[in-house]
Structure formats: structure tokens, C-alpha cells
């Protein structure tokens, strides 16, 4: 199949591209800037101007919508919040209008969302896909993001959504940020350390996208997290163990993170457990269901 990936130049998109090519699919990428590659075809779009290269849409069998300004980068000023929203939702709306016009027989639209959908709270609850969304900024972003994807249902296009947890990578994202103090031997928990840290190995998040692309019977929302549950302290302690580093420093107080990160500190300070049951029951087999093995592979 021809798979068009928006934001295909990012962490998930690059790995997913590799996996799709290995399986014999062809891949094209919708990006804000034209790039050259002998393996994939690049197309461009301008979300603010609602412009898109028509051919990108016309040639696609399936669209995977990964584009989005990084939520973990830069302070959440009003301008940044608008960018976080527009890059996901205005882009989703642009894709919808363009598919309606140029490719109404598209086979599937698969969109990223995030576990922030459930709200950034620390509770004993294990959230499932049927739970309602939260009330904070990220929850509202995810809700609107998913609504813009679900428009595709109205024109009978199979739609699936992946509520993604923290994707393990040593160079980017939450794990990369935790690595520096741990490598220096001063790793510690954040605040109480009890906030859950739903994570997923890069191979598995891409494996789930591949599974949803290829299984035509699957639609709706799926949590993209590993089945094991660790809180922030257990997670960081396991990272230290894998790296052979000590882990005894006093925890970083909440006020320090709030001072440093502003409203965005909620990402580090809150978190509930998220269930992986639905994707497992739908037949997906995790390559890295356990944290220690997932970290060992990632940090190798
Ligand atoms: N990685 C995680 O831990 C994680 C967790 C939860 C959810 N997610 C979601 O999964 C999706 C993919 O994640 P990722 O880690 O691969 O993201 P990423 O590495 O940050 O890449 C996202 C891509 O989106 C495009 N993009 C960035 N800013 C944009 C903007 N202002 N307007 C339009 N496009 C923009 C970029 O592509 P171009 O420069 O080529 O346009 C970029 O390569 C994202 O929507 C992310 O929010 C990721």
C-alpha cells in the first residue's frame, strides 16, 4: 500500500517509515519543508495557509497523521499553545477537506493522540479507552485532535487513534531528559515519585501503527503504552540500574520543576496508569512488554 505519513520526519515517523519499507509498502511524507530521499517521496504543506500538495493525498491508500509541535519543548506560552493545537487540529481539518475532495476512497486514516487525553492526574485508576477525557490543557488538545480525526468516519473511512505514552528514546523526549542527571550519578525521583510513567518502546509504538494499518477490522481509539506499570521513581531507578549508576539523591521538589517549566511541569509531576489491554486483546504482541529489557535495548 501507499502510506502517507504527516510529520514522518520525527522520532516515530522515521522508524515507522523503515518498518513499512521493510514490509514492502511504499511511503511518502508530508512535511513543512521539501527534502530529498531515494527511499520515500516528500510532499509539502502549509497548515496556516491551508495549502497542501494535492498529489500527496491522491496517491495515498492510508494516511498516518503524526505531525505536531513538540509538547515537551519550549514553555507553554499562548503562542506555543496555539502552535501545539494548530499543528495537530488545523492540519487534521486540512487533511479531511483535502481527502473529501481528492481521495474519498482512502482506505484508512490513523492519527496519533496522547495519554494526556485522560488528564494529567495521579490516581489509583487504570485508564481505559472507554474513559472520558480530562479537563486540562493537554486533555482538551487531545480531545480536539481526536475529533478532527473522527471526521473521517463521517465519509466512511476507517479511522483509528493511538493514545501514545512516553516513547523511549535516548536522544529525544522524556527519557533523554532524565538521562543527564542519572548519567552524572545524581538521578532522583521527581517530587513524590508516585506519578505513573506510562511508556512504550519505539519498536512497539511503530508496531502498533503497522498493526492498525494492516488490520482492516480495527478502528477507534487504542492506548499505545506497554502493559507493565511503573511510577516515576521505579522508572528512573530502573534507568539508573541499567546504566550501572547510583540512585539515592533526594527527590526534585515540585516547586523547582514548576519554577523551571511553568504550567508544563504537570507532564513530569502527574500521571496515572493506562491500560494496554485493548490492543493486546485485538491481537497485538508486544516485543518489549517489560521496562528493564526495553531500556536495555534503548540505551544499548
Ligand atoms: N514521542 C512521544 O513520546 C510521544 C508521546 C505522545 C504523543 N506523541 C505524538 O506522536 C506524534 C509523533 O511523535 P514524534 O515523537 O515522532 O514527534 P516529533 O519527533 O516531535 O516529530 C513530529 C513531526 O511533526 C512535524 N511538526 C513539528 N512541529 C510542527 C508544526 N508546528 N506544524 C506542523 N508540523 C510540525 C515535524 O515534521 P516536519 O518538520 O517534517 O514538518 C516533526 O518531525 C506527535 O503528534 C506527538 O505529539 C509522541
CATH H level, superfamily name of one domain: NAD(P)-binding Rossmann-like Domain
CA-based shape: globular
Low-confidence segments, ≥5 residues, pLDDT <50? none
- The top-level CATH class of one domain is Alpha Beta
Task: Output mean pLDDT.
Answer: 95
Protein structure class: alpha/beta
> What small ligands are held by the chains?
NADP nicotinamide-adenine-dinucleotide phosphate
Would you report the number of β strands?
12
Side-by-side strand order of the widest sheet: 4-3-2-1-5-6-8-11
Rg, nearest Å: 19 Å
Per CATH, the architecture of one domain is: 3-Layer(aba) Sandwich
Please bin the fraction of helical residues.
Answer: 25-40%
What are the salient characteristics of this protein?
eight-stranded mixed sheet, 11 helices, globular, 12 strands, alpha/beta, 300 residues, Rossmann fold, binds NADP nicotinamide-adenine-dinucleotide phosphate, two-stranded parallel ribbon, 39% helix, single chain
Q: Summarize this, please?
A:
This protein has a domain at 2-167 and 200-225: NAD(P)-binding Rossmann-like Domain (Rossmann fold, 3-Layer(aba) Sandwich), CATH 3.40.50.720. It has eleven helices and twelve strands. The protein has helices at 11-22, 54-58, 78-102, 137-150, 173-183, 202-214, 232-243, 254-261, 266-269, 277-281, 291-299, and strands at 2-6, 26-31, 41-46, 51-52, 62-65, 108-114, 126-127, 158-164, 166-168, 199-201, 220-224, 273-274.
